[in-house]
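Troubleshooting entry. The earlier prediction with adenosine-5'-triphosphate gave an output that would not parse, so I re-checked the input for stray whitespace and re-submitted. Clean input:
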Amino acid sequence: MAAFTVALVLVVAAAGLLRWRRPAWYWLTFGVTLASLRVLIRYASVMDACGLTVPPSRWRLTLARMANRPVPESRPPRILRFSPTRTGLILRLGLRPGQDAFDVAAASDRLRHSFSMYGVTSRELRSGVVEVRMTGYDVLKRVQMPAKVDTRPMRIPVALREDGSVHYRDYRAVPHALTLGATESGKSVYQRNLVAGLASMDVALVGIDCKQGVELFPLARRFSALADNPDTAAELLDALVTRMEGIYQLIRAEQRITAGVPDAEIAADIWDLPEHLRPVPVVVLVDEVAELALFAGKDEEKRRDRIITALVRLAQLGRAAGIYLEICGQRFGSELGKGITMLRAQLTGRTAHRVNDETSANMAFGDISPDAVMAAIQIPAELRGLAIAGDSTGGWHRIRAPHTSLRQAVNTCNRHADRTPDLPELTPFRPELTALAATAVSVSKTAPATA
Ligand SMILES: Nc1ncnc2c1ncn2[C@@H]1O[C@H](COP(=O)(O)OP(=O)(O)OP(=O)(O)O)[C@@H](O)[C@H]1O
């Protein structure tokens, strides 16, 4: 008996310690079983208390009366599926007549504390069927990506959502994106995760890093082209527009051939082309975009207009040519001059890290979701890397990328350096040449003037 008591005390102490220090481990060892029992046992009473039951139908009442049985109870939604996961529980519910998905969404907070879970979110899967996702602990506090993720070409598992699911950056579904955030809010870490995810794929990476190249140049071995100043950036973007036009010509040529063949698929973008003809897709990462839009003097203004025009053209027409924009900065609004709001409208994927004011949050979500604006303003300063991700459908999620250090990202890029495609249009911007040019400039700036 004494041995049993000691064992019990040890187990309870271990569970308490795990819950405090390692909530993910606690969930996998104890939490999932306890929470499953709690939810299944309390299900009917909690649903009733949360107003998610419907009164018995007339025919059931009549039947009960005729059979002289007690009045039947109100009924909660049917559980269609119950699945424990590594971060929480998923309930698939079949709604009763008269209920809708909004009822469940509105009761999320009540369900959360009634079931003693950390978070509850819900979404409608189809008419009358709602998926309720519950998390057992704060999954965004220490982000651990699942070992198995659903990887497809041009779809990167970049972060974790607060409901424990994986947040993907899917370039084919949302071709261009804008990432905003104050300084030290986690933009670079997010971008690093993207590069690390893309490194193992058949894709060309192009970087424009106006922070003098400190973020992207260390990853140079996996980049097909890099620019670290607005002058090079202007030329590089023009070269990308030329590449895009070339690809449109290729698609047109292929269309002319297939148009004469009955029942043949007609290509509308690079993904419809036969594999041997398909140009490699390009992801263009732009860090500190505002640096490209600032100017002092007439010449710089001309360069700025050239850059913004090229970016707008790539954003409008790049998708079919497999050229995707990933633009990152602290602010991105009309204060940066003409063309910016037009460009922003094309960047339909939006991610906002902590922002300094409501105006910055509005730059990310003002045109798509007022709720997302509020959520972005409320990001606490101490939780770096926490962000709100939304798209033009108005849907949004709280996400956080895993903390990938620059060293880890460099190692990943070096490991996949052999996958770096050589794009003929971008040869003058190959990282080794850009680095040489930068060294030459800095040497000429520091060299003493000779008489
Ligand atoms: N997802 C994350 N998880 C944990 N810590 C993070 C995360 N993202 C960022 N951080 C921490 O926040 C610090 C700042 O991040 P980061 O350099 O990405 O910010 P930034 O927005 O790019 O800043 P700046 O604009 O000044 O370059 C990092 O040193 C890192 O320690």
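This one parsed fine. The domain at 21-135 is CATH 3.30.980 (Threonyl-tRNA Synthetase; Chain A, domain 2).
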